[in-house]
Amino acid sequence: MSPNQKKRAVFLDRDGVLNKSIVRDGKPYSPSTLDEMEIPADAAQALQRLKAAGYLLICVTNQPEVARGNHSRQMVEALNAKAQRVLSLDEVRVCWHDDPDNCDCRKPKAGLLLGAAKDHNIDLAASFMVGDRWRDVAAGHGAGCKTILIEHNYAEEWKAPSPHHTTRSLSGAAAWILENNIMNTNSQILSQLKVKLFADGADKAGMLEMYRNPWIKGFTTNPTLMRKAGVSDYEAFARDILAAIPDRSISLEVFSDEFDEMKRQALKIAKWGANVYVKIPVTNTRDESSIPLIRELSHSGVKVNVTAMLALDQVRDVTAALAGGAPSYVSVFAGRVADTGRDPVPLMAAAMEYLKPHAGIEMIWASPRELLNVFQADAVGCHIITATNDILKKLELVGRDLHEYSLDTVKMFRNDAVKAGFAL
Question: Is 15 a residue of the active site?
């Protein structure tokens, strides 16, 4: 992290959050001795997870009993030191005042949080305040943080805005913070991608699911996918999808093996919508080049998606045929290249060189095998990557904390073993 980069923090009240409060008549009080300070069993692990996710852990605590003469400052500092040592806190900040002092640091004012933000270069909007009383929530709101209340049902009037989240434990608070962290990190990473994400499939429900995903900018399909999805009426299926998805690119493929019939099908399909690209294979099944047809269609105004290419000379020749024509796609099946034991990244980078002089031609990284291919496609400057729903659903894992993902994996193994009834 560079010195100027903003940090994120989780601010934590002490009593009722890091340690159990002493509750009398429904009201919480601070422990007065080290023996009275009871730290919940789940606290250390919860905070370790937050620290591993990159958050500073800063305790911000009101200790008015010192001003009232009920506790010594020396004992409060000893209690703070115990909490900091056991829980690996980065800092403990204390307000020693009572309400009549009208200080800036006593919660519900936000002084403790604002001071920490200034000293540690903290992005308060990306930070959280965890407390067990209205004063903590009010201070968090005042600082511009997201707020979490650990609910203990104290007998006191609520005088603050509602918390962003309510839970019963520090573990619950940490889980909610980490969920927000994943979502924020995920969005930040995906928003930086230049490559457009297209969904490849023929199941209407799956296509509509992807249509609701704002990251998905277009769709591709082919006769093989249609057959697997049980499509029997090509035109009815295509028109139904185009009616449901009228505002994103959709590539529909011809299925004849004869060029005259390919042309007829292409011209018909192209009329179904302004968002239609017609997929033409680079050759027919007799290895006869489709380039003359591709050139004719493109220069007559048909948006063409030339598909099933794996070799660089195919990209070179197809690009030359499309140059100066209608907007078009060049689909290179990088996944199938990888299936042959070759690294597709250098090939795709070289293919992009053929396209660079032609603004109206976009390259598609087709048939990806894993989500990593999205980032590889982005790195080589590929315009589009088209992937199945199974791969695209993994987008939610982008930026996931590896320790958390490891724990989920262990839980999966354990749950499956229990469900299977294994015994030794």
Answer: yes
